[in-house]
Amino acid sequence: MTNEEMAVKLQQVDDRSKSNCKRLDEAEEKLKDNAEMLASIARIDQHQKDMANTLNEVKDDVKSITGKAGRRWDSIVDKVLLGIVAALVAYALKQIGIS
Prior knowledge:
- 94% of the residues lie in helices and 0% in strands.
- By secondary structure, the protein is mainly alpha-helical.
- The longest helix is centred in the middle third of the chain and has 93 residues, at 3-95.
């Protein structure tokens, strides 16, 4: 091989080396971006889990509150019905002459 051929080959290797360095730099930047994105996704996932837990707690609280109101309403209705039945029985007993 002549000196000129060696110089051409050396230039080709040098050009390829520069190209490879540039590609490696770009790949490292993309890898860094991916790592940051994965960390963000992990934070979002944790935040979503926390929100789901909070939502479940709120749902349980709402069920508890509505359950209490429902039980109170049922109790009131029972007492009103019991009063009506008692009044009807008293009225019926008065009509038949039992005081």
